[in-house]
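Subject: complex prediction, re-run

Hi both,

The earlier run crashed halfway through, so I resubmitted it with identical inputs.
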Amino acid sequence: MANFNIDAKKDVTYDAIVIGSGISGGWAAKELCEKGLKTLVLERGKIVEHVVDYPTMNLDPWDMELRGGLTPEQKEKHYKAIRSGWIGTDTEHFWADDEANPYTEEKPFLWLRGHQMGGKSLLWGKQTYRWSDLDFEANAKDGHGVDWPIRYKDIEPWYTYVEKFAGISGEALGLPQLPDSHFLPPMELNCVEKHIKSRIEKQFKGRNMTIGRVAHLTQPHNGRGQCQYRNRCSRGCPFGAYFSSNSTTLPAANATGNLTIRPFSIVQSVIYDDQKGKATGVRIIDAETNEDIEYSAKIIFVNASALSTTQILMNSKSNRFENGLGNDSGELGHNLMDHTYRVGALGKVEGFDDKYYKGRRPNGIYIPRYVNIDEASKSDKFVRGFGYQGGAHRGGNAANTESFGAEYKDSILKPGPWEFFITGFAECLPYHENKITLNTDVLDKWGQPTLTIDAEFKENEKALNKQIQEDAVEMLEATGVKDVLGFDNEHPPGYGVHEMGTARMGRDPKTSVLNGFNQVHAAKNVFVTDGACMTSSSCVNPSLTYMALTARAADHAVSELKKQNL
Amino acid sequence: MDRRKALQKTGLLAGATLMMPTMLSILQSCKEEKRLDWQPEFFTEDEAKTVSLLVDMILPRTDTPGALDVKSDIFMDKVIARTYDAEGREHMRSEIAAFNADCEEKYGAVFIDLSESDRIAVLKKAEADSGKFNPGVWGTAVGEQEPIGFYRGLKSMAIWAFFTSEEIGENVLSYDPIPGNYEPCKPVSEVGNRWSL
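This time it finished cleanly. Structure:
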């Protein structure tokens, strides 16, 4: 599937422009191309062609000179992102350069970025869950934020549509708070996980434990291979077994002949024509030559990732929009959300010493939300809820054993003790004061204003985290896990890498940026379908919802275009 | 990954003072020494000998290769030289010096010059006195990590260097780069040693 058309020189006019090629941008490109639109995808970073550009995909530790260790120069290049603990020599080339792309933390905030074709779709966690009306109705019911302009029934067919193409594996549970996807066969729980699942479900009414629902193929699907259980996903998968733009949507877009993808294209702004009353194109800076170029199109999808999308809109100033494109409401940049992260419990499991597993399963267990789902489960301590991810494996830290020498060495060659952990992800409320602003004092390598991020978790999230830890300890102790240790790493926002909000959808143009089809209220040929559009954060992973919203918005865009409404 | 990160983290946390070599250690270093058969990037020759001896005592050759057989000490030297910043490197140096100063104070000689029984006593005490690594989730330690001290940190690094060597990773541990499927409840007897990857 090689040979992307990257020659955007000969033509500066397209039917559609998509800014960004990550999870949502890739979907926009696929849908628009397949509907016959000549589409230009503007990508800030380099081309990463599926398989061809995965240099570390087959390396064992000993094949890497420092076996994963980073040099001081590499650490400096990623001096902000390195706090995540995710970056090693095997993936360093897929993480953005923090020095060239600075941002300012008014309060601590980890902003992880992937500046290449495919964006963070190469690096994401692949956990994919449908949202439910519990989520879409939450703001309306408890009064935080504004009401979503859509309900589950509006997005349900689009979930099915994207799931059938992307390939989502998981187990159907029939839970109203976590609707089932159109599933490929689930991955399996190991014997300790099965044991704990049965204990939890027996001892805690209303709680379920299941295998994570993931965008990993458990059987060949649409020309892509099934998971080989190597767990080297974020280096790029040569089998195409997980969903990424590179393996899945962009090849489909390319196959239509309608796709042009332009790498090294830093979008400076969306061009708005006051006379025509709509956006007419996009202004870019070539990252390599610093050349300014303008491209024009009838519709523009802004899918640069939540914060970068809003940064582009804020930087798109015109007579009509002095404070940024689509910012009539003053809400652009506000209501930033993430999920809480790394709070839960862990411990050791005895009695399975003769059991092991084969394969490095890139997935774990999931415990769906069980609080505040009905009157009976209502908490008086907080609104909204949380779910857990986790898993069992044989590990242990051999260095901690107080021993050395021949016997010790032979003992650590054997499988270590069984360990089990669960860690919660809690919903974050949309606070107006959690915001990003343009910073004209700190410029990036290309002289563009950068972002200042000013966000924090507040009392409701802290109360949720407290409950997450208490429940986690209680569940582990009740199921016979030993040496149970509760933990809360008290991560500031950003660590969940689920940035949502800053250009929210809503019913009222006075209080929101986008309408129910992800169109900028006052510039209807501009669509935002990445994390920026989110009106609330749910407690489940958001990427599947971005995919569904994108396909839905693209369908609407083409339909409106045909009616000459855009 | 966990161990390496924790080690780097604790390298900054653990407190140790820079010790000057004493006259005794200078005198003793002159006698009965074999020269190193490799050229360290970071360690001095005496530091390298100290670390080599430590990792050999922790992970000796048995019916499988030991740490020195797979050049764990040489790799550790390279990792410190190329991934530690100046502060981290200086800290490693001061910790080795403090370890040797402690040996001198209690047993009258630096570590490499002690009798085997004294060296074993030193390691037993170090095992008992050193802190422990917190457990981790997804590659990051949970909770507040207390300083773990020189010995535990070095031991952890030695195990990492040992397990990630090609010989141990491919031929001693159970090696399966492309499992192809997931078998969730496999008898240990059908696998053997722990998985290397």
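The first strand of chain B starts at residue 136 and ends at 137.

- K.
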